[in-house]
Amino acid sequence: MTRDDLLDILLSTLVKQVGGTRRRWRIVLGDMRVYSAETHPHCNWSLAPAGTAGENAAVERTLDDLRGRHPIVT
Length: 74
Hints:
Blueprint: H1 3-17, H2 22-29, E1 33-34, E2 45-46, H3 53-69
Antiparallel strand pairs: 1-2
Helix pairs in contact: 1-3
């Protein structure tokens, strides 16, 4: 799974489940940080959403699901 693939899945999921536009969700998500899998063996990526409280909650719910299915990205 690549960083861009994961972002695409995340954006599609948010638009489908919550609504809004991909552009707005991309702004809310900000940049994905990818760490070395050697130093972060359980999950080597993170996002820090910067939207409204409701948007951030929706992102965090979706991130929890995706971390379980795709913990390592390249």
